[in-house]
């Protein structure tokens, strides 16, 4: 099977970590690198979490450090304890002995895009800062990226404010740059990720694998269950769903719309505007369109996770 070359760009917190684990083991992917960005927690944590996780599972995948703050704003984090103090809930991994990739996230993205000659898919699951900076620094990137499948935004509502999802709210300027870059985009927003709920039987399955990967996934899910029982967010696989869609597009139903991100609104910062009608555009204009996820096949999504992480059993033999 020909593998899809991907880069995951992330602000590794709890569900990011599960998404990375799935991508590491998924037979559909050639995971070229992982780039880090500030988001759920500060960059020093998102970067170290990523490196610790990848090395703990025995992979030598490149981990490149990216932007410590949004393009125009001060450092912004989620502002709550959704992911714990350092991003991994109550999970503590051994500090990795290796080092980060010598190139920055931006340099790594263009390096791999050139090497893959137009076949590279980017999967940003945190604020879009690194991707926007890479586009501005290397305009050729617009012709070298096959697709950007990102977790962020929402057709309606939000989880940071009443109208904005966190990743979009954290760096709206970056998201707007990417959406209007001409690179094909697919938005996996809250409308579908809030349906990607994991249950106790899922945690039991992963723990039953008897592998490091399975144990980490189960422990992260247990943290999420405790969080939910305390009246906070459920065990939602926001980021894992974006990764899954890269492997199996039919996991979600999509429709094409013009999408942009509000940057200047006092109360609407980070709102992803999904144009149902074209009244903002002059007759004959053809704005860049984005595939927007509308619904998901939850059993099919869970099958992807299980069918990926089951390969961690093979690595222990």
Instruction: Give the overall shape.
Output: globular
Beta-strand residue percentage: 15-25%
At the fold tier of CATH, the topology name is Inosine-uridine Nucleoside N-ribohydrolase, Chain A
Mean pLDDT: 94
Compute the number of helices.
Answer: 12
Determine the CATH superfamily. Answer: Ribonucleoside hydrolase-like
Helix content: 25-40%
| Structural class based on helices, strands and sheet pairing | alpha/beta
The ordered H/E elements are: EHEHEHEHEHHEHHHHEEEHH
From the alpha carbons, calculate the radius of gyration and give it in angstroms.
18 Å
Outline the low-pLDDT stretches: none
The CATH class label is: Alpha Beta
CATH architecture: Alpha-Beta Complex
**Biggest sheet descriptor:** 9 strands, mixed
Number of strands: 9
Number of domains: 1
Strand order of the largest sheet: 3-2-1-4-5-6-9-7-8
GO molecular function: purine nucleosidase activity; uridine nucleosidase activity
Organism: Pelolinea submarina
Keywords: Glycosidase, Hydrolase
GO cellular component, one term: cytosol
Summarize the structure.
InterPro entries: I/U_nuclsd_hydro_CS, Inosine/uridine_hydrolase_dom, IUNH, Ribo_hydro-like. With 317 residues, the chain is an alpha/beta fold.
């Amino acid at each position: 099977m020909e593998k899809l070359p991907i880069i995951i760009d992330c602000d590794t917190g709890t569900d990011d970590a599960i998404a990375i684990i799935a991508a590491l083991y998924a037979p559909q992917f050639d995971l070229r690198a992982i780039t880090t960005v500030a988001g759920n927690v500060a960059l020093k944590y998102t970067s170290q979490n990523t490196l610790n996780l990848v090395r703990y599972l025995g992979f030598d995948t490149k981990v490149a450090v990216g932007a410590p703050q949004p393009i125009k704003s001060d450092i912004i984090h989620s502002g709550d304890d959704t992911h714990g103090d350092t991003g991994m809930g109550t999970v503590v991994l051994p500090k990795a002995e290796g080092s980060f990739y010598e190139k920055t996230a931006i340099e790594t993205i263009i390096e791999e895009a050139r090497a893959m000659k137009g076949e590279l898919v980017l999967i940003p699951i945190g604020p879009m800062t690194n991707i926007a900076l890479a586009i501005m620094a290397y305009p050729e990137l617009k012709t070298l990226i096959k697709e950007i499948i990102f977790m962020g935004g929402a057709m309606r509502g939000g989880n940071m404010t009443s109208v904005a999802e966190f990743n979009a709210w954290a760096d709206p300027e970056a998201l707007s740059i990417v959406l209007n870059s001409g690179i094909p985009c697919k938005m996996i927003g809250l409308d579908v990720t809030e349906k990607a709920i994991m249950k106790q039987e899922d945690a039991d399955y992963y723990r039953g694998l008897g592998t490091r990967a399975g144990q980490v996934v189960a422990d992260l899910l247990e943290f999420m269950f405790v969080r939910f029982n305390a009246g906070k967010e459920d065990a939602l696989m926001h980021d894992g769903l974006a990764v899954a869609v890269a492997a199996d597009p039919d996991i979600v139903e999509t429709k094409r719309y013009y999408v942009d991100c509000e940057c200047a609104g006092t109360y609407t910062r980070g709102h992803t505007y999904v144009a149902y009608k074209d009244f903002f555009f002059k007759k004959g204009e053809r704005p860049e369109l984005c595939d927007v996820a509308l619904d998901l096949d939850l059993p099919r999504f869970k099958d992807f996770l299980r069918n990926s992480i089951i390969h961690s059993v093979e690595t222990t033999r």
